[in-house]
Structure prediction request, 150 residues.
Amino acid sequence: MEYIISACLCGINCKYSGKNNFNEKAAQLFNKGLALPICPEVFGGLSTPRASAEIVNGDGMDVLKGIAKVISKDGIDCTEAFIKGAEKTVEIAKKLNIQKAILKANSPSCGYGQIYDGSFSGQKRKGNGVTAQLLLRNDIEVYNELYKIY
Ligand code: SF4
Prediction:
């Protein structure tokens, strides 16, 4: 197994809306047995469907430092679930000795390089999601589906 991959990219309906973010190339990796689908938000105990959530006043690094929170659109603090999901994802990657992750762009969990800015207006800011950040901290390479690496 070469990659951890966001499950929603493989067509699995784990997105907050109960739908997915199907991506042809991601699904091919999954179908060839090269990528293990994970969904950190589900790992963290959140249900599907669920209210969308964004990191408020920071990025994934700030969440892990304890200085920013993940808040759902209906005002619930989901920070603990996001951290738990990130930890579970790293645990699995380490157990299987997986060194690379392809994650869904812009997500507060999976986003790499850019995430939604916490205003629920579709605006983005620089930064990584909580899981992307924790994977990087554990020396796992992170890409998103927009990179041409596979
Ligand atoms: Fe997809 Fe990641 Fe969101 Fe799960 S947490 S639905 S894998 S972007």
